[in-house]
Write the structure tokens for this entry.
Amino acid sequence: MSIAENVRYYLDKIKAGNCFGEPVTLVAATKTRTAQEINEAIDAGIHDIGENKVQEFRDKYDLVRGANRHFIGHLQTNKVKYLIGKACLIHSLDRDELAGELAVRSQRAGVVTNVLIEVNIGCELSKSGYSLGEAYPAYERVRAMQGLQVCGFMAMLPLSDDGVLLGRLADEMRALYDRARAQDGNIRHLSMGMSGDWELCLAHGANMIRLGTALFGSRTYPAAKNA
């Protein structure tokens, strides 16, 4: 199917919402995708796009039209300045050092930056993020910082064929989200679910998913660039 057909297919699939009937936001993960491909997805109904690399975020920014720009990848503190005032939501706040830099840069620019607390729900050495036990205290610390607005949580489930395990981890994320939401009306996003596990995540309470290959097909990686 074409990109446009894929977009329409997945937008229709999520129309009913998650297991709680909450609306689901589809973020098109646009890593390595050309501006032409991204614009095709936007024309087909995508409203939110997410980049993993700061360099790609910058290079495509003026070439892509009419979409909310998310940053969904690991973020180095020295690259924060390129996102302030441009990213509508940063999904990957994974450490206090990054929170401090985002807060300082946001205050200097006179803006409030929306962020999600990234949780390493599978305790994987290859992934960044707060542990589940650290996530709520981290949320409370970041919530108190001027220049930042915590809007929820983000997680990537581990690669596993164990549906029971994945369901339990997703439920733990939803419980964390509900705990924060019960006292904070700004908590509205649980970003969890990618092309291989989005259905499971919606069945366990995610309300934002990040789809790349499902929309655009397999990636072709270019030569590495400094980002």
